Model the fold of this input.
Amino acid sequence: MQVKKYRASTMSEALELIKKELGPDALIIESRKVKKRGITGWFSPPQVEVTAVLESKKPTTIEKQEYSYPPVNNQSESVFENAAKEIAELKGMLEEIKKEAAFSSVVDAKKQSLGVEPLATVRERLVSTGMSGEAADIILMDLIQHGVDLKSAQSIDRGIRAAIARLIRIEKPNFIKKPTLIFLVGTTGVGKTTTVAKLAAKYHLMEDYKVGLITIDTYRIAAVEQIKTYAEIINIPVEVAFNKEDYLRALKRFEDMDFIFVDTAGRSQNNLIQVGELREYLDAKKPDEVHLVISATAKLEDCESIVSAFVPLGVTHLIYSKADETLKHGSLFDIIKITDLPLSFISTGQRVPEDLKIPTVENVVGLILEG
Ligand SMILES: Nc1nc2c(ncn2[C@@H]2O[C@H](COP(=O)(O)OP(=O)(O)OP(=O)(O)O)[C@@H](O)[C@H]2O)c(=O)[nH]1
Ligand SMILES: [Mg+2]
Done:
């Protein structure tokens, strides 16, 4: 591991020096203002001293957090008890259906007698979209609760679409006040910075809002350069915040903006210390919205630990990224249920800003069922 201190008149000069000597993968571990050495230092402006290292730290792993689906509703106790009873009955029915599926001859006989697919087959079809059996059961339960005619293949199909539509939420960012402050958070490499650039382009270039960008991802030089390049192309201002004070200064500078998007460093859901570092900023000035970016390629068991790690930061929305990297999107239903968040955007590729989709209930239902 190579650790070196660099002094320069400005932060950009220091970063340039580090990049030249250690390359773009160097990590910045400390930055501070210092006076020049010797008597001349008394009369000259302060310099920036940046400490950089070349090798990345290994994240410390913690035990996997347990996660359970959020409660279905929070109505009064008696209503809840009745609902719980109904759910227990429905669960019983579903267990029967699952047992039926184990005996294909029974399934076939039932299929023939009804002239349509039995629910067990519908469940299989739902699972074949990539969603979990648990998620398929939630949809089937909703179907039964809403009295869908189970003898008609058409009404089952319509019922499934209606059930998914009822069970998901779509919500775009709200222009709450001037400026509306929005953070993007998530694990490493999920597409946070690219999505920040797409959002900035959408709101500034297409909708004529005044947009400012702040990056608090100063861990790698390449990350700072990436967002600066996007800001230059879109022609909007960007501020680099190395600490809470820089962040508050940047917010002050952007007080006339309509939207401020904050790009954050990728944090492993297994490193709660890293995730907790974000809290310092969130506590200094609470954002209006925090969008959690989850990749379509994330494993469902990882999604549960991502939720455990990031939800305590006060996330408000879900962005589904890298949707182009998989053909099946049934797991999006799981992700929406596990996070219990409204979906704000879908990212479908690397192009800025073209590959950003504004979801509607219809196209998300279609994406989940048909890919
Ligand atoms: N296929 C595909 N690639 C994407 C998408 N969004 C981003 N990428 C690519 O994924 C890589 C990582 O994207 P970034 O935006 O840098 O991801 P990040 O979350 O900011 O990464 P860190 O800051 O390192 O945590 C880049 O090569 C992007 O071009 C997407 O929707 N689809
Ligand atoms: Mg990034």
The chain has three domains: 3-53, 77-167, 180-370.
